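Re-running the complex after MR caught last week's input typo. The corrected sequence lines follow. Everything else is unchanged.
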Amino acid sequence: MADTQYTQERKPQYEGPPDYRVAGQHGMYPNVSHDESARFNFLAQMNRHLSTQVMPFIGKAYEARIEPERIKTEGKPFASRHEVRKALAKDPIWQWWSALRRATMESRQQAGRWVVLRQADELNTKAADLTNSDPRLLLDSKLPLPRGVEAIDHHCMPGSYHTELVEGDITGPANYDIGLFATTGGMLGLYNDGGGKAVAEWVRKNLGEDFKPKRILDIGCGLGHNVLPLAEAFPEAEVIGIDVGAPMLRYGLARAKSMGIENVKFIQGDAADLSSFDDESFDWVQSTMFLHETSYKTMPHIFSESFRVLKNDGIVLHVEQPQYDSSMSLFEQAMRDWDAFYNNEPFWTKMHEVDLDDWMIRAGFKQDELIHGGVAAIVDKDVFPDAADDDSEDFGRKAAWHVVGARKSA
Amino acid sequence: MSNIDPIKLAGAKAKGKRPYFMDNPDVERLTNIVLVLTQELAVTRERMDTIERLLERGEPVTKAAIESFRASRTEADERGLWTQEYLARVFRIIQQEGEAIETGDEAESEEVADELAERA
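Corrected-run output:
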């Protein structure tokens, strides 16, 4: 712009989010005006500013004054990530970063909600036209909400996954969909599908061409952005997404159909109770960034139910941010816990400390059946930032994840 | 037509008690307002930039042309870079607080003044 004038030779290489307008416009995408796009551009840049320009100072403050102060007053180092977090919370640089991070998240919600709510009637009609009397949408209005979903709106998203402002309302998921760009700086790619694409490729590479799933179940599918790439990569498969939030499922099917993806069903259900599905009826049970939104009480059921519905030779894969273990510093654990306490992800902290291998074994898998890996979002690198090549770290937000799973013995 | 009021509902509060991080919550409330004003100025700047680029292309500047404007990759990078420079300017004080962490204790000007005024 006018006052940014560099000579050609001195022009810095731009690194950062692409223009919001490159986001994929599927058939359920709302109209996003010039200024609304500009607002998302700002928010994506603001998140990047916080992670690359402000957050590094917290590490420096930790080393220079927070940890030394602890040693000085207590005579011993921090013993847990919670102690570290409570000490960080007293430091002004952490306070400023946190206040701005929370404010940016809330502003992102306001920006997205404004876009979808001003055209709610058009969007809701479009979704109804695409899904009414389609047998691939199965809703259960009597399904109780899990406590974790009912108690708090996850990641500060007003109304969370389940609220309908009017009957058949899909503005919640539409807002979620259009704002992911701002939170991730475009790292999830064209249709926020970079995570699912990476999982599909990981499976092809690690399980080989012989693995030809006929039925895939995605638990906690939300609006389906992580599961549609699986449906595309395995077009012969019948893909089923379940979630407790009816608006997500309605929007998910409408969105999938508008993208020409037909081999997917959306069923309202709780991952802790898969009793509507037969034993050994799926080749693949998948969850992506879902376990941290469940609970300690329901996780054993989720794991045992996933084992039960899985066919012999089938796979269960859970994609999550890395677990906390002894190889991760208490400082990093405390930073990663930010979302648990300050971004309405209350189970994030407990979920990340459990031994997932042990939980898989308790669900019925054997040690030698366990699978471990890592994936980073696959995007069109000419347009979107590549998480695998990006050195920046936005603890808990980066589009690069761990894979923990198992393959049931044939 | 439904009776959804987008102006009111867009800014609805998420369920769950809101945390405050700063020692004085009023400072934090004001910070939230300032952040949004910063955002809205960036939005206005992007609109101005679009208008300038339409003019440079010799295209008529209409609302429809602004709405359908698509920046080239180079143009988008220039706009992105501007926003990064702008944010660095707005949040300069945080950068300086951060740099001070590494520097550690520094002399105040008054201390130096006293020192310089000492007689030989």
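None of the earlier attempt is carried over here. Chain A touches chain B through 68 residues (CB under 8 Å). Residues 27-410 of chain A form a domain with the Rossmann fold fold (CATH 3.40.50.150).
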